[in-house]
Amino acid sequence: MAEFICLFGKDSASIVIKQPKKSPLFLRMIVLVFAMVCGLYICSVCLKQFSLQSSQLVPNPVDSHSSHVITRIHYPKPQTFNRAECGHNPVRFFAILSMQRSGSGWFETLLNSHDNVSSNGEIFSVMDRRKNVSSIVETLDRETLDRVYNLDWFTSASKNECSAAIGFKWMLNQGLLANHVEIVDYFNRRGVSAIFLFRRNPLRRMVSLLANSYDRYAKLLNGTHKSHVHSPEEADALSRYKPVINSTSLIHDLQETESLAAKALEYFNTTRHMVVLYEDLITNPTKLKQVQEFLSIPVKDLSSRQVKIHRGDLSDHIKNWEDVNKTLNGTEYEKFLRADY
């Protein structure tokens, strides 16, 4: 646009250069661009808040034995009921990864005694679900995992509306290790924390396995099989059976158990996880506090009605104790012969 030059005086000694007035169209363009920038910023903030509505990352307050230092909180929106006033309460996702007869049933009843925890048992103990673990994880349908974490899986443990932590038990031999790549990916994407529960003394677990397997057919309690009992009388009745342990394959069997646990920890190393030993839960009261802190739930006194079946020295519960004692003495597994709690 041309500039105006004005001359004043006869000799034109004074020269004033006068800028032209800016076009109203130009000013309107500036306002429009500014409005668009502001609009884009507001939209980005809104989208960010919307994406965090169902899942948020928060600092992890305790040592999770993992390279990940953040945990994820969720705001599930169940299809089968309305969370009502609890809809704004965050929920943590977890899974108890363990082996049969490692104390996971007792441990789960302890967790479920918390007002805000729902642990739904072994959802993959049913063979049909176990066969379809891979497809379930890959397709992320609502039949199993998604239903559990969406609060749409109903069991006697369900707290529904005001659950602060939701999970289940998953045994290592229920498709967990066979499909570990897909499951680890699912856990990391959905923010599922893993709690590994093992026994320090696998020899005691072996006794429990054999005795429980025998009772499936013997049904020692008035013709009824019970994996867990709630009275000292029932515990004493079941503990009267003393299994015979194969001393020839004993060391190999103990090695296999240790190898299985080590493999699980290796496979799930990238997840947020913690390791809990059954014996520590019995002897160390702070362990349950650590578990609750790991789940970021209010710490409370937890209790269970279950009664331990095999109490006292192992020599009281193994029929061929002399053979077992001779086999393990002088080996790295000799320590398992002694009482550990």
Describe the structure.
The chain has 341 residues and is of the alpha/beta class. It has 2 domains: 4-51; 55-200 and 248-307, Rossmann fold (3-Layer(aba) Sandwich), CATH 3.40.50. The chain is 40% helix and 15% strand. It has 13 helices and 9 strands. The protein has helices at 24-51, 104-112, 127-131, 133-139, 145-149, 172-176, 180-190, 202-218, 232-239, 250-267, 278-283, 286-294, 321-328, and strands spanning 4-8, 14-18, 55-59, 70-74, 92-98, 117-122, 165-171, 192-198, 273-277. Strands 6-7-5-8-9 form a 5-stranded parallel sheet. The termini are far apart.
Blueprint of the fold:
Layout: E1 4-8, E2 14-18, H1 24-51, E3 55-59, E4 70-74, E5 92-98, H2 104-112, E6 117-122, H3 127-131, H4 133-139, H5 145-149, E7 165-171, H6 172-176, H7 180-190, E8 192-198, H8 202-218, H9 232-239, H10 250-267, E9 273-277, H11 278-283, H12 286-294, H13 321-328
Parallel strand pairs: 5-7, 5-8, 6-7, 8-9
Antiparallel strand pairs: 1-2, 3-4
